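Figure 2 data, in text form.
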Amino acid sequence: MINPVTQQDMHLSGRPPGTPAKTPVSSDFETFLRMLTTQMQNQNPLEPMEASDFAVQLATFSGVEQQVRTNELLARLATRQGLAEMAGWVGREALTPAPVHLDGAPRQLVPPEIDGADRAELVLTNAAGLEVGRYAVDPLATGISFEPPDPVALPPGHYQITMEGFRAGQSLGSHPVLSYARIHEARSDMGQILLVLEGGHFLDSSDVVGLRS
């Protein structure tokens, strides 16, 4: 027995269950037909449009419709190919400027080069954007093993880390610090390929500047 369509079903979907949703292309085609019909009804009877003019309009729209479908197909294929490539990154460590997940263990950081700096500090901000710590580091270091000196002051979580350089007591500005984080997952979201890093942080795959096993 087929259940009748209820008013609630119509309210939620705007159409009976089982009716396929209209695509943007099909909606545009219906709009084009309505406009073409209106144009025919309101044309000058003394100077009617030639049948060839209607054929040209229809052919033009059909070409645009086909191009739209082709572009959509190419976009889906590109996303699938990119996702397949990103799947090979799972399990590897990505070098990124993403927030660093601190859990009490030492983290390997790659600091920026700040020309002319005679002093430098790592600056940590929490998820709310508040500065929660500054730590002096060697301005010429090419790698830093950072371990929070006070786990109570820095509870486990994600922290954005930058490095501020100084020369003769004057600030030379802050620059992002890079760090390695293991990739746990790659997923597609609205045509964008996102990586899920250890600690649950999401990152655009285009922000990865290095990989290691």
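Caption note: The radius of gyration is 29 Å.
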